[in-house]
Design brief:
By secondary structure, the chain is α/β, with parallel strands linked by helices. It has helices at 18-29, 41-49, 53-56, 71-80, 105-115, 117-133, 154-174, 192-205, 209-218, 228-239, and strands spanning 9-12, 33-38, 59-63, 87-90, 136-141, 179-186, 250-253. The chain has two domains: 9-188 and 228-253, NAD(P)-binding Rossmann-like Domain (Rossmann fold); 190-225, no CATH class. It is built from ten helices and seven strands. It has a seven-stranded parallel β-sheet with strand order 3-2-1-4-5-6-7, with helices on both faces. β1, α1 (18-29) and β2 (33-38) form a beta-alpha-beta unit.
């Protein structure tokens, strides 16, 4: 299937590793130009160097820490210096795990500033030019926790659900302008973040991390964690031409973990 991404420019947040880098690689493989954004220039350079030489030529970097109040402007300016952004992939880190009853509201506030505020700012900044060009894709990576809350991730469940409500509302406004707005909900994908969560659970329970990971995989109908390549492929489809009638949706990439309809 030709996704029609030649000559399209994508901005991918959190793209130095994990899900963000997987999405960037999938888009580059389809012919898009991609601006990788992250807080570490060293890691972004390493990510770019890991690409095939011909893809490196179509890969640019935008360095900013999303906890910086000026991050959205810095990222937007750096990306649009190369070309107008046709595809925005919102992707942020996750807050620390814990019990809902032990949540620190100051931590919630600081995490809102890093996980929600910059995503809203970038989306609002870039969607105007997408609408003017009558084409655009906004994809926000959240978590399966917005459908079925994850017990030890209360802050993530709450803040990512905020983005769900906003993106769904925006989708209804901009659909007639050729701009689609969708959410991608990863389940247990084999990333550094997943490994750290398994390790934290192992530490809390005093059990081997291998045992925790095996138990988690056993709860997934697919019987395993997903790969970043599988996730990236779904994101690339949503970014492409054939998905132009898919908007306002939450697409699960979770191996069947969420049992509700």
């Amino acid at each position: 299937m030709d996704l029609g991404l030649n000559n399209k420019h994508a901005l991918v947040l959190g793209a130095s590793q994990g899900l963000g880098l997987a999405v960037a690689k999938a888009l580059l493989a389809e012919g898009a130009t991609v601006t990788l954004s992250g807080r570490s220039l060293e890691r972004l350079e390493a990510a770019r160097q890991s690409l095939p030489p011909e893809q490196q030529l179509n890969c640019h970097l935008a360095v900013a820490d999303l906890s910086d109040p000026d991050a959205a402007r810095k990222i937007s300016d750096a990306a649009q210096a190369n070309a107008a952004v046709d595809i925005l992939v919102n992707n942020t880190g996750g807050p620390p795990p814990g019990l809902p009853s032990a949540v620190d509201v100051d931590v919630v506030s600081s995490q809102f500033d890093a996980m929600v505020r910059p995503v809203l700012s970038l989306t609002l900044d870039l969607v105007a030019s997408m609408r003017a060009r009558q084409w655009g894709r906004i994809i926000t990576i959240a978590s399966s926790g917005v459908v079925q809350p994850i017990p030890h991730l209360p802050i993530s469940n709450a803040l990512r659900s905020t983005l769900v409500g906003f993106m769904k509302t925006l989708a209804g406004e901009v659909a007639k302008d050729g701009v689609t707005v969708n959410m991608l909900l990863p389940g247990r994908i084999a990333t550094a973040r997943t490994k750290s969560l398994d390790a934290a659970q192992a530490a809390r329970s005093g059990r081997p991390v291998e045992e925790i990971s095996a138990e988690s995989a056993a709860t997934i109908p697919a019987g395993r964690y997903g790969t970043v390549e599988e996730f990236g492929a779904v994101a690339a489809f949503l970014a492409g031409m054939p998905s132009s009638y898919v908007t306002g949706s939450m697409l699960r990439v979770d191996g069947g973990t969420i049992r509700s309809i």
